[in-house]
Amino acid sequence: MQEKKQDQWASKLGFILSSAGAAIGLGAIWKFPYMTGMNGGGAFFLLFIAFTVIIGLPILIAEFIIGRGAQKEAVTAYKVLSPKSNWSFIGKWGVAGAFLLMSFYCVVGGWVLTYSVLSIPGLIIKEGADYPALFETITGSPLITLIGFALFLLINVVVVSFGIKDGIEKSSKILMPLLFIFFIILVIRSLTFEGAMEGLRFFLQPDFSKLNASNVLYALGQSFFSLAVGISVMVTYSSYLRKDVSLPMSAASVSVMNIFVSLLAGLAIFPVVFAFGLEPAEGPGLLFIVLPEAFAQMPFGEVFLSLFLLLFLFAVLTSSFSMLEIITSAFTENKNRSRKKVAALAGILVFIAGIPAALSSSNLADFKIFGLTVFDASDFLVSNIMLPGGCLFIAIFIGYKMEHAVMQKEFSYGNHLSPSVYKVWFQLMRWLVPVTIIVVFLGSLGLF
Asked: What residue ranges are annotated as transmembrane (predicted)?
């Protein structure tokens, strides 16, 4: 039996909210709406739900089982479960992926922080404002971008340095409920506009004639990104969990929350976009350019824009907490090192590594890697190689390496599910999940 970890979640609710926070961030609120707008609306949303349940949920359960089964962080977990083997490379892959993801994720977090600060005194919505120009000014200013990046990282370092109960769990218990409250307010407001029903039809009424092979692959890839699976974040989080908590039910709760927030994002955004005749396929600028334009045409628009930006900031922070936690825990586990010092050092290294991505819209705009800016190249590497690759490795480890007895016990603790449920999950992990991931991986590289 593994030694009990000194730091644990204080409650099941804290674990679920923190895990949901790790999954809900740029994927669910920023990336999901513009991917839906560019890839067929309701049909894309329906496929996203199906892939999240059939593929993403089993992988999430697998990461939970690995983490709690070993009671160790990502790198050490695989050493414990498969001693005298090299499977710990999956954990190292995850730490490297989390580090690279943070290096550009926190740049976007800095943008959100900047917009949030500007929106509070009403400096965004103005008569005759040019919102594309404002976005270009913010992202194109090295000083503004780097200050936002640094402040966003500082918030992460402070929270993670306090550990699980005193840092991540306490903040998630406050931030996650606020996220849902803010979103519901925005959804109610957006549905009151004339023409909002057209946006609802676009988002909720599937039109499969708009789909092609690449749309299907994007929907599957979005399910990976939005659940934060593939970089062993959830392995680290579940390693702090007690044995009386049901892993399948916890994973189901996180997946349902993720789908629910994605639904709320669509309900908050698309009715507004269609009500004011804006373009749903705006791309990554949907949040920063289209929404300020839409909110500017509302009564009390600045107030509602501020609410939306604050909720988005909360979601991005809870996700980035998880990425910094996997890095910090990897270098403090079984070592006489201060969590605060390791978190601070990790933050400094992430900032240094993220400077090229932060300057991709300004000083380094002309510097390309295979035709991509540093920011876009980092995003491509994480989204199209590291996440699906990590998921594939985890599926192979579960399906062909980890001991059945350990998996079955971890799957069964804290619930009364039929043994047949475990058998179905295991077969999904052994066959359907890896085959599907290979298809996504090859498709994302344009190999078919």
From this structure: 12-30, 42-66, 87-113, 143-162, 174-196, 216-235, 256-278, 298-321, 342-360, 380-400, 428-447
Per-residue pLDDT of the chain (448 residues; tens, 9 = 90+): 444 444 566 667 667 766 776 667 778 888 899 889 988 899 999 999 999 999 999 999 999 999 999 888 888 899 899 888 889 899 999 889 989 999 998 999 999 999 999 998 888 988 888 888 898 899 999 999 999 999 999 999 988 887 655 666 676 677 778 777 878 888 888 898 888 999 999 999 998 888 877 788 788 888 888 888 888 888 887 888 888 889 999 899 889 988 998 999 899 889 988 988 878 877 777 888 877 887 887 788 888 888 888 878 887 887 888 788 788 887 886 667 788 888 899 999 999 999 999 999 999 999 999 888 999 899 888 877 888 889 999 999 999 999 989 999 999 998 888 889 999 999 999 999 999 888 877 776 666 5
What does the alpha-carbon distance between residue 440 and residue 448 come to, in Å, rounded to a whole number? Answer: 10
Of 381, 20, 395, give the one whose Cα is nearest residue 175.
20
Structure-token pair, residue 316 = 């991005």
CA torsion angle 134 109 176 310 (round to 10): -20
**What contacts 389, CB < 8 A, 6 or more positions away?**
93, 230, 441
Q: What is the third-level CATH fold of 12-444? A: Hydantoin permease (1.10.4160)
d(CA 37, CA 40): 6
The Cα 62–Cα 307 span in angstroms is: 36
Amino acid at 126: K
In this structure, what token pair is assigned to residue 77?
Answer: 């977990």
